[in-house]
């Protein structure tokens, strides 16, 4: 974190460190490549969030983390370059008070579901969080002919509206956005949404899959939320030893 | 192994070491990710088995190995967290006296077969052990609407019953469980069951595959059982040098 | 660069270094294996271009970079072995004055599109540059029965003609060639053309994909051109630390 | 090589070293896993060939290389364990005097073609050597119900007969065998046969592929044979630095 003279208190060092690790894990697990980003709500001020400056997630360090307000304006330093799609984060934090972390990615396995009518559904218990439904955002409805990016508060609001109370939204011709009540949960959901997509594509070629029932999915999601430390410990070791 | 004052004698250090290596191999070969587990029957007491505490297999060391009885109660220390699905292991050891090792995994290639009507069959000699048939466990029949996990002795018994005298069982919406008469055999079967699944999916898209006949499969399985040291030496070097 | 006594001035060391990095990135990102090549137009003389001698791109160093004229004759040293397909580069530089870098590769994901009637189209914003169309070069029309390689100025001219004003051309039974106004842009296009091909194959199996509209593709391509430094920094670190 | 007092002269150290490198490359390039083998005809005695003892190719060193006669009997030391399928090698060397190297593998991409009626055909110039046809060996015709392995001279002779004058043969439910006039050529053919299979599977899902015409394939194969040093240098560096 760059030092600051503003009224916004600095976030806990542990939170910044966890956000850095989240960036690295998303890269090491192939959820993001040079593009995509992860943010976390500020622990001292819920009207702010923390995210890296314009940088590939695999290269992010604590010094790159910046605070933004919910309009996605950097709090301290407007001289650097920031992710042009930071409005995804700000508008979701505004619309969903319980959300603590947001991931935006172009995970390859998710793109085909966003581009077709196929619905992403939970094929196994690891992705029970998909069971409440996965909407698809069509940017043409909100913005007409664009470069596909969420470059404005208006587009960010439209995306947040399309997300509603769900945990993940696919974005046609672009990628996906996932939320969570912690960095660990949002990272978990990103990794297993992508893996579920790959497994579902394979299963669809084999026959008619039996997906998890809504009740199975809800129970599985709750169970998995109780075991987030286990994969995090492994992912962290893999990501930080590179 | 944690030291102990109970009546259960400590297992051979070599067995614990082999179990640790088995954990690492399953991770390095992508059979397990942060989830899944491998156990071995206790060499001094067939009514006990050894398995890691609640930990990603890729992180397991000898100090993490714990003894359980066939009710899957830890023998020495009930204060730690253990795998919630340890009943898979205990109930299979109870039902199958000849079984010495059990692997439970969510190998991605196996999920599509568990979720559809497609039958996993031996497409080449490396997976002859599939030739006696691969049942699919539907947890709804045993437990109704669950979180998909084998969390109770009752579900463990139902799984063991569905496994019958087979070497592997797929679990709908969840994963798979393999058994063997040694750690090496159970690990071998895990790796080649997953690989066979991938090859079979490819072959099914090319045309009607000729699978191994039952007699071919049985003979191939016997031959492979005589060559387990060869892949183990390679996998061990790959897994332990990470 | 080998030293030289000819009239062609030496290129900037930074350009040679960037070309070396481009070689390594293309290998590390699986765009090329031992075959394929990347060139850049000479910064001091637009009638010359720079490329490695006959060597796998993953092994190229600054000492291997050689200058060629637009007839693809090496300027200084005709004693070494050079890529037999260097005419791809020379003839495209001759036909397209604005082109500064050329990549030729056999990226596995692109071969199926070159061998069938399926058209490569932009499935997401990262590959907006595909939106102006991707022609397929049929060497039989230009050269009859060949070894498929662009071994002559005549074949190079035919390829350049088929490329026209596009950014990429597929070559039936062979590979693909991409151009850019910088090394970074040509490398970017190579990586995302291959990734788009993989995603499109997956999407086609799921249903009828919605591809980017021409206007979306054009706008996305322009946006991406403004963010080339971000992936380059990551790819460079990955490629040069091997 | 173990020292010897027999009448068979020791092979050139360079040949043994090249064979070791060939073993490691086949492993590093995923043509073989713990199973599969590569041999070379003895440079001092064409009625002998060199191959590792029973060991995963990725672990082979010069000390593991042993000489066999064409009956596949080890020349010096019958006390060790050898590959049970060494008759593949001995019988092909007997039947094909021009063959200098033989690879046997279970490359995953090739298994689906051996198990179905789909014919492996050259989809691009890198695999022109496939253009003369790829027979499939059905071991049931030669040996009835077996463990699928070429365990006897009789089965080895049947395989060599089925191979005929071709460069590669698929083995139903088992794997493939490739030959070459050098270690480098046999390794090249192994790697690109597997890659071609993957590309062909993708192309078949996209539409009706245009394969290389026989004349194109023959010319491409000849061209590639003139460039074997280029990939070998890269593969060697990758394999020997592990």
Structural features, described:
- Four copies of one chain form a homotetramer.
- Chain A has 242 residues and is of the alpha+beta class.
- The first copy, chain A, is 39% helix and 13% strand.
- Chain A has helices at residues 13-28, 87-95, 111-115, 139-143, 153-163, 183-206, 214-225, 229-240; strands at residues 37-41, 48-52, 65-69, 101-105, 136-137, 168-171, 175-180.
- In chain A, strands 3-2-1-4-7-6-5 form a seven-stranded mixed beta sheet, with helices on both faces.
- In chain A, a hairpin with a 3-residue loop joins β6 (168-171) and β7.
- In chain A, α1 packs across α8 and α2 (87-95) crosses α5.
- Chain A is globular and about 55 Å long.
- The two termini of chain A are 22 Å apart.
- Chain A binds chain B through residues 122-126, 128, 195, 198-199, 202-203, 205-213, 215-216, 219-220, 222-223, 227, 230-231, 233-235, 237, and chain B through 33-35, 54-56, 58-59, 84, 106, 108-109, 111-118, 145-149, 172-175, 201, 204-205.
Quick rundown:
Four copies of one chain form a homotetramer. Chain A is of the alpha+beta class and 242 residues long. The first copy, chain A, has helices at 13-28, 87-95, 111-115, 139-143, 153-163, 183-206, 214-225, 229-240; strands at residues 37-41, 48-52, 65-69, 101-105, 136-137, 168-171, 175-180.
């Amino acid at each position: 974190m760059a030092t600051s003279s503003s009224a916004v208190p600095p976030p806990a060092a542990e939170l910044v460190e966890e956000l850095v690790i989240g960036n690295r894990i998303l890269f090491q697990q192939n959820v993001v490549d040079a593009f995509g980003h992860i943010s976390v709500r500020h622990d001292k001020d819920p009207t702010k969030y923390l995210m890296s400056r314009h940088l590939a997630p695999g290269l992010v360090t604590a010094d790159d983390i910046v605070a933004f307000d919910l309009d996605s304006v950097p709090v301290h330093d407007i001289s650097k370059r920031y992710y042009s799609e930071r409005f995804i984060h700000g508008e979701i934090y505004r619309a969903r008070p319980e959300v603590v972390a947001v991931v935006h990615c172009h995970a390859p396995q998710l793109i085909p579901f966003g581009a077709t009518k196929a619905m992403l559904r939970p094929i196994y218990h690891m992705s029970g969080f998909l069971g409440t439904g996965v909407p698809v955002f069509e940017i043409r409805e909100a913005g007409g002919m664009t470069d596909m990016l969420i470059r404005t508060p208006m587009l960010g609001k439209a995306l947040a509206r399309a997300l509603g109370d769900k945990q993940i939204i696919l974005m046609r011709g672009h990628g996906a956005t996932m939320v969570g009540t912690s960095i660990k949960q949002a990272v978990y959901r990103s990794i297993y949404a992508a893996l579920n997509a790959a497994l579902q594509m394979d299963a669809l070629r084999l026959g008619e899959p039996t997906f998890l029932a809504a009740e199975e999915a809800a129970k599985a999601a709750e169970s998995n939320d109780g075991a987030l430390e286990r994969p995090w410990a492994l992912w962290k070791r893999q990501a930080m030893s590179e």
